[in-house]
Design goal:
Elements: E1 2-7, H1 12-23, E2 28-35, H2 39-49, E3 53-56, H3 59-71, E4 77-80, H4 81-90, E5 96-99, H5 107-115, E6 119-122, H6 125-142, E7 146-148, H7 151-160, E8 168-175, H8 185-188, H9 193-196, H10 206-214, H11 216-229, E9 236-240, E10 246-252, E11 257-261, H12 267-275, E12 300-301, H13 308-319, H14 323-339, H15 345-363, H16 370-393
Helix pairs in contact: 4-5, 5-6, 6-11, 6-14, 10-14, 11-13, 14-15, 14-16, 15-16
The chain binds NADPH dihydro-nicotinamide-adenine-dinucleotide phosphate and magnesium ion.
Magnesium ion binds at residues 150-152, 221.
């Protein structure tokens, strides 16, 4: 039985994690749930799963929830702020923390969870992009498990099971190509927020959906795979596969290629992580190779001249240190500005490139610690916001 603390339980991954729990309640207990501000969804989850403690980042929303629980005679404790998230990640009664907060906000709770000996089921890729060089050594030092949830990394993990790591030649990470696959730079100039939120195969939270449209999601995943599987970024290839049936592949030294397949659903990779090293019950509908959607599985290269953030991510991941931290922070600021209608779609890329160019020389020699990562994240956001202000004025 896994005793879970689910950070970001009201989001797309959080809700699908609870779907897995709902299907097999005797295999799990829910010890803690957290969110940013969506207390209506959290209240319903608390009523159903009765965690000991929960946390709402927004303090006034936390107060409101606390009152609502009292009025309903439910005695879950309500915490707030960053500290609330960290406390939920560290409570004694949980053994596994599901990292499903979006963005850099997910890093510190996961870091503290590892320090406290918890296994980590990780969806929050920004944690590894911004802090992988601190997180992964800590995972090894504490002897806890890192259980990947991101579908590509789950696929790679499953393919690697039983293989000698020295036999791994390359990782072929698949990408749907997002809503703008096949578009030119000119086409991208005028795409709207609504266009960018319209993902062809996956239904996900807003930030990752925009990352999929810019293809930065694949850039982040290259760095995520580099940390998870100890492989240089230059040995990871992006394969655009619009049907999202093959979730990724590995190529071994002898030329054998192993792939993991399934319908595009996050429930299965979440289940794989939560039942590791065993297999759980059948929850998603059965894979049918004769389904019309399987008739044409196609593969094409990623056009990095159009989706330039992929190139930047390769470069940042290769340089390592705090450069990916800067890139990630700038991307978060830029995606937020795009979603708020402040900058255009290509303004995201401009913001990220310019922030990295400005800050790279400043972070070069810094020692890699959790404090340096947090400080760099803050500074990069300030720089990115300055660049965004400049874009808005022109
Ligand atoms: P969502 O936006 O749907 O959900 C994000 C969750 O994080 C919500 O519960 C939100 O609370 C919470 N949250 C946001 N900020 C804070 C904060 N400061 N403190 C505490 N909680 C916070 O995102 P997704 O579920 O789509 O993605 C989550 C992570 O998983 C991302 O890193 C993403 O890249 C990764 N991932 C997602 C996939 C998907 O299919 N969705 C696939 C693979 C990876 P509230 O609801 O109150 O705002
Ligand atoms: Mg993914």
């Amino acid at each position: 039985m896994r005793r879970l603390s689910i950070l970001g339980s009201t989001g797309s991954i959080g809700k699908q994690t609870l779907e897995v729990v709902r299907k097999a309640p005797s295999d799990f207990t829910v010890e803690a749930l957290t969110c940013g501000s969506d207390i209506d969804t959290l209240f319903d989850q608390i009523k159903e799963f009765r965690p000991k403690v929960c946390s709402v980042e927004n303090p006034s929303k936390a107060k409101e929830l606390s009152q609502k629980l009292k009025d309903s005679g439910i005695d879950s404790e309500v915490l707030t702020g960053k500290e609330g998230n960290i406390a939920c990640a560290c409570i004694d009664s949980c053994d596994t923390v599901v990292g499903a907060i979006v963005g850099f906000a997910g890093l510190e709770p996961v870091y503290h969870a590892i320090l406290n000996g918890k296994d980590i089921a990780l969806a929050n890729k920004e944690t590894l992009v911004a802090g992988g060089d601190v997180i992964m050594p800590l995972i090894r030092e504490k002897g806890v498990s890192m259980l990947p949830i991101d579908s590509e990394h789950s696929a790679i993990w499953q393919c690697l099971k039983g293989e000698d790591r020295d036999d791994l030649d390359r990782i072929l990470i698949t990408a749907s190509g997002g809503p703008f696959r096949g578009k030119s730079r000119k086409d991208l100039e005028n795409v709207t927020v609504e266009d960018a939120l319209h993902h062809p195969t996956w239904n996900m939270g807003g930030k990752i959906t925009i990352d999929s449209a810019t293809m930065m999601n694949k850039g982040l995943e290259i760095i995520e795979a580099h940390h998870l599987y100890g492989i240089d970024c230059c040995r990871i290839d992006v394969v655009v596969h619009p049907q999202s049936v093959i979730h990724s592949m590995i190529r071994l030294k002898d030329g054998s290629v192993l792939a993991q397949m399934g319908k595009p659903s996050m429930v299965l990779p979440i289940e794989v992580a939560l039942y590791y090293p065993r297999r759980g019950p059948s929850i998603v509908s059965e894979f049918d190779p004769f389904d019309a959607a399987m008739a044409n599985l196609t593969f094409e290269p990623c056009d990095t001249d159009v989706f330039r953030l992929v190139k930047l991510a390769y470069d940042a991941g290769t340089k390592g240190g705090l450069v990916p931290t800067v890139m990630n922070a700038a991307n978060e600021s830029a995606v937020r500005a795009f979603l708020a209608g402040k900058i255009g779609f290509l303004g995201i890329e401009k913001t990220v490139f310019e922030t990295v160019a400005k800050m790279e020389p400043l972070v070069g020699g810094l020692e890699l610690t959790i404090d340096a990562i947090c400080q760099t994240d803050k500074e990069a956001r300030i720089r990115a916001d300055e660049i965004i202000d400049g874009i808005i004025k022109t």
